[in-house]
Design a protein that fits this description.
The protein is an alpha+beta fold. The chain has 24 helices and 18 strands. The protein has 5 domains: 148 residues, Alpha-Beta Plaits; 50 residues, no CATH class; 129 residues, no CATH class; 189 residues, Hypothetical protein af1432 (Orthogonal Bundle); 151 residues, no CATH class.
Length: 721
C-alpha cells in the first residue's frame, strides 16, 4: 500500500474556482475508490493558482476480493421429470461459461433458482485509475470552462502538465492532449525542465524545497504570519479581513510581503472608500496606527507578491502608482458630490429608473416613506417623528445619483454607507445619518442587523417595496435565476422581523402592494394574485430558515400554516415543538388532535381563528362560526361534558400565556387535554346513526380542532414510531 498522487497543473486559476474544485475532487475520488473496491486511509485535496492536487493515503495495490451470486432459471424449470437438465439450464451454464455440475439451487425471495457463486477478478489500482482518471478530471465543474485544444476537452484553464503516481510508479494516461508522468513544475513558463518526483510520498517535501507551499491551510497560516510580522515591525496594526485572506490564499504559491505608502491627502476620504479602493482590485490590506484596532487609518498598505526572485521594491513602486490613480479618482468623486450636497443628489432621483414600469427611484422614496410610517405605528404609538421619516426616505437613496456610486465602479458596494457620509457632511441629525447607513442591513445572512429604529423601519420598508415591485413586474425568482436577489432580501426581512416584530409580514406586503396600487404602478397589475404568490414565496423562505435551526420539516409545515406572518412567533413555536417531540404528553396530544382531525371533513379543519370566534363557539353565542354550532343538550356521555368543561376552563390560561408570548405554557395547557381527548374517543362513537347527535358531535370537535390549530396544524406532525 502506497500513497497515490494526482496533480493537475494548469495556467493560473481564478482564486474563487479552487476551493469548490478541490471539495468536489475529494468527494468524487472517494466515491471512485468505493465503487472500485480500493481500500485506502483517507482522501486529501488541496490547490494553488497553478495546480489542483489529490492525494489518496495508503491506497491498496489491488482491488478487494469480492464474490457475487449469479442466478438463472427457476429450479422448477431447470430439470425435467426424469431429472435431466432442460435447455434453460444448459443455456444458462453455457452463457456463463461454467460446468453444469457447478450450478446449485439458490434460495431467493421469489423461490429457488439455479445459480452459482463467482469470484470477481481483482485488478490493480493503477490499471483501474488510468481508465477512470480522465473522466474524473473532465467531471470537475467550474463557473466557466474553456476549450483550447483540438480534442475539445474543457477545463477552467488550459492544462499544461499532469503528475500521476502510485508510490514510486507513474500511472500513465492522457487528458486534453497532455500525458501524465512524474514531472511537476513551479512556474512552467519560466522553467526549462520539470522537477522529477521519486515517489508520491515525496511530493510535498520536494515542492517545499522549491518554494511552493502546496497545502492551502499552511499557505494561509504563512500569509497571516507574514502580514502580522511586517505590520508589527512597522509599528502598525493590520485591519483584519478574513475574506481577503481567503482569496489571497488561492492567488499565491510562493508568497512574499511588502508595505507601501500613499499621500496623506487621501485620508480626507471616508475610511471605507480607502479600504474598498485597496481591496476591490488590488487586494491590499489597510492599516491603522498604533498596536490596537481603534487607531485611525494611516497612509500605508500591506500586500503580497508571488515568487522569491521578484524585487519587492519594484513591486511596491508599481502598486503605489496603481493605488494613487484609484484614490485620485475617488477623491475627485467625493469632492464633486460634496459640491452638490446630499439634497442636490436626492433631487436627481426622478431621472433614475427603479424597475421598468414601476417608476423612478424618486417614486420609490415616496412609497418607502409611507411604509416606514405604517411600520412605525402598527403596534402602537409611533416613536419616529414625521420629519425624521421624511428625511430618511428622501435621502436614503440619494447616493445612487452620486459620482461615487452611480456608474457601477467598485464603490457601488458602499451605497448607503457613502450616503451616510454625505448626510453627515450636510449636517443632518445623527438619527438620519444612522438610518441612511443601516438601510441595507443585513446585506448577507451573517451580517449584523440595524441598531436604530429608523434604520430598522427603513430596511423593512425598502425590502418590502423591492420584493413586491419585482413580483408585480413579473421578476419572480425561478430555479437558479434571481437577478434582484429577492431570496436574500426576503431572508433579511425575516431576520429583521424575528428580532424586531414591528408588523406582520402579510400586513406589510398588503401595505406595500397598496402603495403601488394607489400610485397606479404598474399600469395593469394583478394585485390579488401577486399577494398569493408573495405568501407562498415567504413561506418557502421561512421554512428553509427555520429548518436550518434544527426543526423538522413536518413541525415547520404545521406551524407555518398558522403563523407564517409573524416570524418571531413562528420560529419560537417550531423550536419549542421540536424539543417536545419525544415526550409522552406531547405525543398523546398529537394522537388526540389527529383523531379529531381525521374524523372531520376538510372544510371543518379551520386554522388560525381569532379569539372572538373561538369564544363564540365554546359559549354558544349567535356569532358562532359556521360548522361549529353545537348544543351540550345533545351530549349523551359524561366524557363529552367533561371534554367541554376542560376545554372551556383552559381558554383563559391559553389567552394569558399567548399574550405573554409564553408558548411553553401554551403547549403545557394543550398537552393536558390529551388524556381527556383520548378518553372521549374510547367512549364516544362520533359517526353514530342519529343525524342530529352526529352533526352536533362533529361541530363540537370542529371547534376543538380550531382551538388547537390556532397555534399549529398539529395534525400535520408525524408521530414518532
Amino acid at each position: 500500500m502506497s500513497d497515490f498522487l494526482l496533480e493537475i497543473g494548469c495556467e493560473n486559476l481564478p482564486a474563487s474556482y479552487v476551493p469548490p474544485a478541490i471539495e468536489q475532487l475529494a468527494a468524487d475520488a472517494g466515491a471512485l475508490c468505493g465503487e472500485a473496491r480500493l481500500r485506502h486511509k483517507g482522501v486529501y485535496t488541496t490547490g494553488t493558482p497553478r495546480r489542483i492536487v489529490l492525494v489518496i493515503r495508503n491506497l491498496a495495490d489491488v482491488q478487494d476480493a469480492k464474490t457475487e451470486t449469479v442466478t438463472g432459471p427457476p429450479v422448477s424449470k431447470s430439470y425435467d421429470a426424469a431429472g435431466a437438465p432442460t435447455q434453460a439450464a444448459l443455456g444458462f451454464a453455457r452463457s456463463q461459461g461454467v460446468a453444469l455440475s457447478k450450478l446449485k439451487p439458490v434460495a431467493t425471495p421469489k423461490g429457488d433458482y439455479l445459480g452459482f457463486t463467482r469470484v470477481l477478478k481483482r485488478r490493480t489500482a493503477s490499471s483501474l485509475l488510468k481508465e477512470r482518471l480522465p473522466s474524473l478530471i473532465a467531471g470537475l465543474r467550474f463557473p466557466k470552462s474553456m476549450r483550447w485544444e483540438r480534442g475539445g476537452a474543457r477545463f477552467a484553464r488550459p492544462v499544461r502538465w499532469i503528475v500521476c503516481m502510485h508510490g514510486k510508479k507513474a500511472v500513465r494516461f492522457a487528458f486534453a492532449g497532455v500525458s501524465s508522468g512524474n514531472a511537476t513544475h513551479t512556474v512552467p513558463w519560466l522553467a526549462k525542465k520539470g522537477i522529477r518526483l521519486e515517489s508520491a510520498e515525496s511530493y510535498f517535501d520536494i515542492m517545499q524545497r522549491h518554494g511552493v507551499i502546496v497545502h492551502h491551510e499552511e499557505r494561509k497560516s504563512t500569509l497571516r504570519k507574514l502580514a502580522s510580522g511586517a505590520a508589527s515591525e512597522a509599528g502598525l496594526n493590520l485591519i483584519d479581513d478574513p475574506a481577503l485572506l481567503d482569496e489571497l490564499t488561492f492567488m499565491l504559491e510562493e508568497p512574499g510581503v511588502f508595505i507601501g505608502e500613499f499621500s496623506e491627502k487621501y485620508l480626507a476620504l471616508p475610511p471605507e472608500v480607502i479600504v474598498t479602493a485597496m481591496k476591490a482590485h488590488q487586494r491590499y490590506f489597510a492599516m491603522r496606527g498604533g498596536v490596537n484596532t481603534a487607531g485611525d487609518l494611516v497612509p500605508r498598505f500591506l500586500s503580497f507578491f508571488d515568487g522569491k526572485k521578484i524585487d519587492p521594491a519594484d513591486i511596491r513602486r508599481g502598486n503605489e502608482k496603481v493605488l494613487r490613480a484609484r484614490l485620485e479618482d475617488a477623491l475627485f468623486y467625493w469632492q464633486e458630490d460634496l459640491k452638490r450636497g446630499i439634497h442636490g443628489l436626492a433631487g436627481k432621483l426622478d431621472s433614475i429608473v427603479f424597475i421598468e414600469g414601476l417608476g423612478s427611484i424618486k417614486d420609490k422614496t415616496g412609497r418607502v416613506k409611507r411604509l416606514m410610517t405604517f411600520i412605525d405605528g402598527y403596534r402602537g404609538a409611533p416613536r419616529l417623528s414625521a420629519a425624521t421619516i421624511e428625511k430618511v426616505a428622501l435621502l436614503a437613496k440619494a447616493d445612487l445619483a452620486s459620482e461615487m456610486v452611480k456608474d457601477g465602479k467598485e464603490f457601488t458596494l458602499l451605497e448607503g454607507l457613502i450616503g451616510s457620509h454625505y448626510a453627515s457632511a450636510a449636517g443632518e441629525d445623527r438619527e438620519v445619518v444612522d438610518a441612511v447607513r443601516e438601510q441595507y442591513a443585513p446585506r448577507a445572512l451573517s451580517d449584523p442587523l440595524p441598531e436604530s429604529r429608523a434604520g430598522t423601519c427603513a430596511s423593512m420598508a425598502d425590502r418590502a417595496d423591492s420584493i413586491c415591485g419585482c413580483f408585480l413586474a413579473g421578476l419572480i425568482p425561478t430555479g437558479s435565476q434571481d437577478p434582484y436577489a429577492l431570496r436574500r432580501q426576503a431572508i433579511g426581512l425575516i431576520r429583521l422581523l424575528e428580532r424586531f416584530p414591528l408588523v406582520p409580514i402579510d400586513k406589510l406586503l398588503e401595505a406595500s402592494i397598496s402603495c403601488y396600487k394607489s400610485d397606479g404602478l404598474p399600469a395593469a397589475g394583478d394585485f390579488e394574485g401577486v399577494l398569493l404568490k408573495l405568501e407562498e414565496f415567504f413561506k418557502g423562505r421561512l421554512e428553509g430558515f427555520i429548518r436550518e435551526r434544527g426543526a423538522a420539516y413536518d413541525v415547520v409545515n404545521a406551524v407555518i400554516q398558522v403563523s407564517w406572518a409573524e416570524p418571531s412567533i413562528c420560529i419560537e413555536r417550531c423550536l419549542e415543538i421540536q424539543k417536545r417531540r419525544k415526550s409522552k404528553p406531547f405525543e398523546l396530544l398529537i394522537t388526540g388532535v389527529k383523531r379529531v382531525g381525521n374524523i372531520l371533513p376538510k372544510d371543518r379543519r379551520l386554522c388560525g381563528l381569532p379569539w372572538d370566534r373561538l369564544d363564540a363557539a365554546f359559549e354558544g353565542r349567535e356569532s358562532v362560526p359556521e360548522g361549529m354550532a353545537f348544543s351540550p343538550d345533545l351530549f349523551e356521555a359524561e366524557v363529552e361534558h367533561r371534554l367541554l368543561r376542560e376545554a372551556k376552563a383552559k381558554l383563559p390560561e391559553l389567552r394569558r400565556f399567548e399574550q405573554s408570548l409564553d408558548f411553553n405554557g401554551v403547549l403545557n395547557v394543550l398537552s393536558s387535554l390529551g388524556p381527556v381527548i383520548d378518553g372521549y374517543f374510547d367512549t364516544v362513537l362520533v359517526n353514530c346513526d342519529r343525524e342530529a347527535v352526529r352533526e352536533n358531535r362533529i361541530n363540537f370537535l370542529a371547534g376543538l380542532f380550531a382551538l388547537f390549530s390556532r397555534y399549529a396544524d398539529f395534525s400535520l406532525i408525524v408521530e414518532e414510531g
